[in-house]
Amino acid sequence: MSAHQSGPSATISGRPAFFATPWERRWVQLVVAILIDVAIVYVLWQVLTTVGVLPERFFPDANSVVRRVWTLLQVSLFWVALGNTMESWAAGLVLSGAAGTMAGILLGSSDRAYRFCRVVIELLRPIPPIVILPLALLALGVTLQFKVLLILQGTFWVVLLQAAYGVRGVDRVMLETAQSYGMSKMRRFFHIQLPGSLPYIATGIRIAAIFALIVSIVAELVGGAPGLGNQILKAMSAGDSRTMYALILLTGLLGVLITATFSWLEKRVLFWHPAYRPETR
Hints:
This protein is mainly alpha-helical. Helices cover 75% and strands 1% of the residues. The protein has 10 helices and 2 strands; from the N terminus they run ββαααααααααα. The model is unreliable at 1-16 (pLDDT under 50).
């Protein structure tokens, strides 16, 4: 056996192992695209501020913002603010994920319940969290519960509808076939409907994760709750544009990290589902 053949784990069809599947290649392409986009924005920002197209009063040069990012990462105040934001994000996401999934599964499992609640859902779903912010602030004050309530309003309906659509989207022929073989309603649910709806639920939770971060930041910006949004507001009020842009940049990177993490978890946990199986060549 040749030296090349003795190491099958090193290459697959002449390609490096970490580029072996289409899913892994797509991730590499995504990372490269993000790095290229960041480099383009950085260069344009630096050039436009240097030549004076962007006024320095409102747009500090990119180099100084990057240096401020590094400084913030070494300051405990930033990590405290990040912890406050992530605490409300996690609490709101867990509550909305659990409640939305259970409610969506119940609605999706009953045509009568779905038709009965559809009007109420369509009435409440479009209400943005910012609308109920004054009422929530008055009732709860600047607390963790205040931010969690806003996150619930912004993310609960996403998970609920995805779960309901997932349950209702299961192949009816498959359900009828299982029923004809004497499978009970409970077994049909756990063996057919629930596995079939998991990709919808996972997608809903992934979307809700980034919505939860956005709502948390808005609650801190507008409502004055502690967190990254509040630090951005303080930097803006103090005229410290470098810190403001650095915090905005770090918040954006946090959003990218959350999206990438949930996408990765979604594909790893549901690897057995046909929708997530790697393509065969």
